[in-house]
Amino acid sequence: MQFKDIVGQRDVINRLTEIIDSGRVSHAQMVLGDERDGSLALALAYLQYLCCEHRVHHAEGDLRADSCGECPSCKKVSQLMHPDLHLVFPNATTERVKSNPSCADFEGEFREFILAHKGLGTLEQWYDHLGVDNKQGMIRESDAAQIVRTLGMKAYEGGWRMLVIWRPSRMNASAANELLKTLEEPMPQTLILLVDDSLEELLPTIRSRVQVVRMKTGNGNRKTEGSEEFAPMLVGWLRMLFKLKMKELSAQVDKMAAMGREQQKQFLSYTLDVMRDCFLQTTAGLPCRIESGDEKFDAMFPNMVTVNNIDLINDALNDALFAIGRNAYGKIAFMELSFRISKALKKR
Description:
By secondary structure, this protein is an alpha/beta fold. It has two domains: about 5-220, Rossmann fold (3-Layer(aba) Sandwich); about 225-345. It has 14 helices and seven strands. The protein has helices spanning about 10-20, 40-50, 70-80, 105-115, 125-130, 140-150, 175-185, 205, 225-245, 245-255, 260-285, 295-300, 310-325, 330-345; strands at about 30, 55, 65, 85-90, 160-165, 190-195, 210-215. Strands 4-5-6-1-7 form a five-stranded parallel sheet, with helices on both faces. Helix 10 (about 245-255) crosses helix 14.
């Protein structure tokens, strides 16, 4: 993949090419950004530029430099076939792999997935591609042990050893501990790139050992993700929070808890976006994008989110996201969230 194919990240890209050209490449870095903004694509383009035998520098235009796209190294990286490029990603049991899954079991499928989506595929799309149903993907200690073994070997082509860990927030504590020494003291000419959309879900022991590259977000230019799927559920749930009729609320929470974990997290992320939009409408007059189809609700609800309760709402939703990400029991997490949001909305 080349930098020229990545939209809206010119400042970040130019900074990265300057770092590589200066020879000051940090051995452990994290590309922080949404998949749809091209975080994985950026990481792969970065590695392609690192390996490129004939880097192209532009005297004019907003893109400082790029890989040539034609040399043998560029072609191998672009097809994810470079022998010194290794990929680690969340995985789970499937119909084909019924026990003890690992990245090694799904290397072909993951390369196919990346190329099909041009590096822009989401975690949910990966799980759909893999066919894991509602199971939660994970990066396990066995995957981390394989990383340590692989990075301890000589590079096949005598250059950089390159590792991409996609969604390290799905790494369990045992895997993280296995990786710590490698992150701190890798062999020379080793580059470990972590790619995720959040620092909060990343284990602190990993977070403290990486240099963060923050992408610009394009979320402000999109329709709120999930509005068609989640808006009716959000509206129904919020209406119940005003009445707090326990029988009805319990039934609603059951529906939310019955969703797969990735859907639960997407619903919570969508709710966070809506609450922030409501707050911006209340405080700055910017349009809110609930788009529920219920005009009365869309007109009235934003006024409920104010400077007095936005922090309480954000904290409650982020705590729920963290709990679900750590495999908390869905019904308990959503019921606790319901009480906290209900209490916060009364503080407007």
